[in-house]
TrEMBL record:
InterPro entries: FG-GAP, Integrin_alpha_N. The keyword Lipid biosynthesis does not apply. PANTHER family: PROPROTEIN CONVERTASE P. It comes from the Bacteria. It comes from Paenibacillus montanisoli. This is VCBS repeat-containing protein. Keywords: Signal.
Length: 362
């Protein structure tokens, strides 16, 4: 078992966070919504900018670091449901100065965003999950010196609505990362920028998490899927197989049916044994009070993966305000320097830091 030291950093109700060096002092800071929290203590809070609040949500479902304008300082990529716009916030490099926000694209309502360097250029591309729109991604335009220009190119790779849920997974094992959506997967072609990707409607994942994770759960050499129900009960894995005719099959297995609103998932080696753990938890009031299990206690968990036998360990559990969920976009990174990854958990229940103290004797 691992031991965690829990600390509430703020009662602010932003649902996304990130960890990066905001002020260039070489120490990781925590960013969440309208504020950043200065490391290593994270007690000192600095204003970033005002964030639009609509219907008990903040228009900030991602806080990803990227040097967009090439000035050597990490900026923030963000976007959310109500604003229907992918945006970036410019880091002014001066504590106390408000960050300017710039629109990238009016792309439709964003469930949340994930990032992956799809072409190996060294800078991740931006993949928003826009359930009502076709799947697109955005590439930062860089100059001859490789520095960001503040401009982005948009590539639309599917037709029809994307649906709720998205993951970046090498489904077929060809070495290229594909895009998993709730109703199937988009196969990356040799040139990811050359038009539509082939869609394979092989499964129906429901109100799927963002991300859907790809991992060989049972060790048979095929990539399986790990999926949370973002707006219902259930955490599952889908076993990839091969039928007699050579077609791909997917067998659904339960991991945990006791919780709801598993919106964000991570795979990380929390105990340093060389194998990743599944980390997730309940997003508090994901649809305010409209989802099944909305009034259940919140929690944060990790699961040991043993050939499909997921062993659950509770990091935190209890009523909101006392315990923490996982928000829509939490973060896992070693902040203390002890080698063990820590967990930063935002949400409408506040912003929490769980310092991973390592293994304890039970």
């Amino acid at each position: 078992m691992l031991e965690f030291k829990k600390r509430q950093l703020s009662e602010e109700k932003y649902e996304a966070c990130a960890v990066f060096d905001v002020n260039g002092d070489g120490i990781p800071d925590i960013v969440s919504g309208a504020y950043w929290y200065e490391g290593p203590g994270y007690a000192k809070k600095h204003f970033i900018c005002d964030v639009l609040e609509i219907s008990e949500y903040h228009d900030d479902f991602s806080d990803y670091p990227m040097d967009v304008d090439g000035d050597g300082r990490l900026d923030i990529i963000t976007g959310a449901w109500w604003g229907e716009t992918l945006r970036w916030r410019r880091n002014p490099g001066e504590t106390g100065t408000a960050w300017e926000t710039f629109d990238i694209d009016k792309c439709g309502s964003i469930e949340t965003i994930r990032y992956y360097d799809i072409d190996g250029c060294g800078v991740p591309e931006i993949f928003p999950n826009t359930p009502g729109m076709p799947q697109s991604f955005y590439k930062l335009v860089r100059d001859a010196d490789g520095k960001g220009t503040g401009e982005f190119l948009k590539y639309t790779i599917s037709e029809g609505s994307s649906g709720h849920g998205m993951g970046i997974v090498d489904v077929n094992g060809d070495g290229r990362m594909d895009i998993v959506l709730s109703g199937g997967w988009l196969e990356q072609p040799e040139d990811p920028f050359a038009g539509l990707w082939t869609f394979h409607p092989e499964f129906s994942l429901g109100s799927a998490s963002v991300p859907v994770l790809g991992y060989d759960v049972n060790g048979d050499g095929l990539t399986d899927l790990i999926v949370g129900q973002a707006h219902d009960y259930g955490l599952h894995w889908y076993e990839q197989g091969c039928a007699a005719d050579g077609s791909r099959t997917w067998t659904k297995h339960e991991i945990d049916m006791t919780g709801s609103q598993f919106h964000d998932l991570w795979l990380a080696d929390l105990d340093l044994d060389g194998e990743p753990e599944l980390i997730t938890g309940k997003r508090y009031r994901a649809h305010n009070d409209g989802d099944p299990g909305a009034h259940d206690p919140v929690g944060l968990y990790y699961y040991k993966i043993d050939g499909g036998k997921f062993m659950k360990h509770v990091i935190d559990f209890g009523p909101a305000g006392e315990a923490s969920g996982a928000g829509i976009y939490f973060w896992v990174q070693d902040l203390t320097g002890n080698g063990y990854p820590d967990i930063v958990a935002p949400g409408k229940d506040g912003l929490y830091l769980f310092e991973n103290l390592g293994k304890r004797e039970d």
